[in-house]
Write a structure and sequence with these properties.
Elements: E1 9-16, E2 19-26, H1 31-39, E3 57-60, E4 63-66, E5 79-81, H2 95-102, H3 112-115
Parallel strand pairs: 1-5
Antiparallel strand pairs: 1-2, 3-4, 3-5
Length: 116
C-alpha cells in the first residue's frame, strides 16, 4: 500500500453531469469542495459540513448523497449529477425548478439546490 500524506495529490476521474472530469485532489478533499472549487459547479452549496442540512446533496450513481461527507477519491469511476444538470438548456428552468418557484418552495434559497 502506498504511503499517503495530507499534501500528496493524485488523479481522480469521474463523470459529472455527463462529462468526464479528471482532477488532482488531496487525500482529504471533499467531493463538495472539488465540485465547487476545482470544477466550478457552485450549485452544490456547503452549509453545515456535517451532512445534516442537505444543501450539498448530489446524486452519485443515481442515489442521493451528501457531498460534504464523501471524499473526492471515493468518487473514482462514479457518475455524479448536480443541480446544474436539471435544466434542459442554459437559462431555462426545468419543470421541477418551475414548480418550486411557482409554489414558493424557495425560502432563502440556500438549500434549494440540495432539495431539488
Amino acid at each position: 500500500m502506498p504511503v499517503l500524506n495530507a499534501t500528496s495529490r493524485h488523479e481522480v476521474t469521474f463523470r459529472v453531469n455527463g462529462t468526464e472530469q479528471t482532477v488532482r485532489v488531496e487525500n482529504r478533499m471533499l467531493l463538495s469542495d472539488v465540485l465547487r472549487h476545482e470544477i466550478g459547479l457552485t450549485g452544490t452549496h456547503v452549509g453545515c459540513e456535517h451532512g445534516v442540512c442537505g444543501a450539498c446533496t448530489v446524486q452519485i450513481d443515481g442515489a442521493p448523497a451528501r457531498a460534504c461527507l464523501v471524499l473526492a477519491a471515493q468518487a473514482e469511476g462514479m457518475n455524479i449529477r448536480t443541480v446544474e444538470a436539471l435544466a434542459a438548456e442554459t437559462g431555462r428552468l426545468s419543470v421541477l425548478q418551475e414548480a418550486f418557484r411557482d409554489h414558493h418552495g424557495l425560502q432563502c434559497g440556500f438549500c434549494t439546490s440540495g432539495i431539488l
